[in-house]
Structures are given as structure tokens and as C-alpha cells.
Amino acid sequence: MTDEMRALGPILLLSGPNLNLLGQREPEVYGHTTLADHVEVARVAAADHGLDLEHLQTNFEGELVEAIQGARGRAAAIIINPGAFTHYAWSIHDALATFDGPVIELHISNPNAREPWRHTSVVAPVATGTISGLGGLGYRLAVEAVAGLLAA
Ligand code: CA2
Question: How is domain 2-151 classified at the architecture level of CATH?
Fold first, then answer.
């Protein structure tokens, strides 16, 4: 870990609406793993890089906007699975556009292989990169991506 990374703030992991139901419904799409399990994987991966990780799950768009605003100048990076907000919540797009660090858009499923309305992401244009369709593996990969970007 470099001195620069030690001085960094936490990774903020944000989970949007209905992701609190992971592991309880639609396992054929989202698997059997709970959100708490995914967060733990991300937390361990972050710790491996000397980074703290904070997590917020909310079903409310405004709460995500406030969390993103609160991350400005404080968090080193944002990993966000915006849930269905991905496809239409321009307030989240606008909030993320004000954040200076890396932003990783994360999806468990591959929205582009699903219904047409999921093919549009209003978050993608303001994300540094997107990880989708890799199930729970995406949580670890998102943290690895952040660590690599912060170290570059
Ligand atoms: O694949 C993803 O991670 C999504 O962001 C999940 C969202 C969906 O709207 C996006 O298109 C893709 C839905 C999250 C809802 O999660 C549930 C979990 C269990 C049962 C029902 C919904």
C-alpha cells in the first residue's frame, strides 16, 4: 500500500432499490447470495488493498443522491449498483457527475441480455467503467478495479 492510498478515504458501495431482497427472490436471475454476503466480499477485497469500505442500501432515489453528494471530497471512489434506477434516474447521473474519483457501475445480471428497457443506463455515461453479468464475482472485481485505478 502506498502512502497515497493510506491517505485515501473509503470506497463507498451503494446499492439501490430491491437489492435488499437478494437471496430471497428470483435466484435464477440474481443467485442465492445475500447482499450482506456481497458486501462482505467487497469489504475483504478492499481491506486487502488497505482500503475501508462503507455500504449503503436504500430504496429511495434521493437518499442515493445525498450519499453521492456526501462522498464528494471524502470518499476515494464509488461503486454503485443503482438497481432499476440505472435505467431512468437522471438525478443519480447528475450527482455522480459531480464526484471526482473513480465510479464503477456494477450489475449482478447482464442488463443488456434482458428486457429492452434495461438496455439503457443513464449511469454509464458518468461511470469510469461498468461491470455486469458476472454475478457476485463483480463485487470483488469492482474493488480490484478501484484499487488499480487509485494506484495508477
Ligand atoms: O443486475 C443487476 O444488478 C441490476 O442492477 C438489478 C436490478 C435491475 O433492475 C437492473 O436492471 C439490473 C434489480 C434489483 C432487484 O433485485 C432483486 C433481488 C431479488 C428479488 C427481486 C429483485
Answer: 3-Layer(aba) Sandwich (3.40)
